[in-house]
Amino acid sequence: MEKGYGASVSGYRSLKKKKKNQDSYLIKYYRSHLIAVVCDGLGSKKHSKRASKKACFVVYKLIKIALDKRHLDTERLIDSIKKRWMKSIKPYTPKTSDTTCSFVINNNKNILLAQLGDGMIVISINDKLYMKQEPIKDFTNMTQSLGKSNNKDWQISVIDKLESEHFKIMICTDGVSEDLYEDKIEDFVNALSKLIISKKKNNNRNIKSILKEWPNKHNLDDKTIVMVK
């Protein structure tokens, strides 16, 4: 099974305002599953670091419960995430503490992708771009988030795996995805994959160095990448 690596850095806006990085991510292994979660706290909310961090742990905990029952009901999982997350951020509310949420559940048979709000999930098979999952935008063009979403706002995909196929998955927040041109995504994922070497510590450091040296200096957002390969 593939392994996961990740890094996150503060954007210029956070540094200028002396705020914490609002992004959070989590990579865990449980019952032959790799679980990766990436959440982007809304910068306009005062306590969005709490929102994104709590969302990561809520998603992981609920997936663990589902796997223990050996029945992963995606619709029930998505419904439970918002309810459990709302309790977890107390005494705050979504008015001051909100976040997007993307996660991947990867095992030997298939990959489940779930996304709410900005950012991007990319699947590469045998070094070729297979799927790009991006946010659903409504007519207001506003970011969907846990605090103001419904189940229908989530994008869910399941990809079956074949033994002969080599998979790579990238999850990133919009601080990264907004700067990736359509025709360069495949090249970026493949280049990032080449930096993944044997030691986990070095992999995380290599991803972080890319984010710190991000070429678009005008992008103010925090930046997070999780890579699974």
Low-confidence stretches: none
Mean pLDDT, rounded to whole units?
91
According to CATH, the fold-level topology is Phosphatase 2c, domain 1
Element pattern in H and E: EHEEHHEEEEEEHHHE
Q: Give the number of helices.
A: 6
Characterize the overall form: globular
Biggest β-sheet description:
5 strands, antiparallel
Report the sheet-strand fraction: 25-35%
**CATH level-4 homologous superfamily:** PPM-type phosphatase domain
Q: How are the strands ordered across the major sheet?
A: 1-10-9-6-7
Number of domains: 1
Tell me the name of the CATH class. Answer: Alpha Beta
Q: In total, how many beta strands?
A: 10
- Tell me the helix content: 25-40%
End-to-end C-alpha gap: 8 Å
Concise description?
This protein is of the alpha+beta class and 229 residues long.
Q: Would you give an account of this structure?
A:
The chain has 229 residues and is α+β, with helices and mostly antiparallel strands. The protein has a single domain, classed as PPM-type phosphatase domain (Phosphatase 2c, domain 1, 4-Layer Sandwich), CATH 3.60.40.10. Helix content is 30%, strand content 28%.
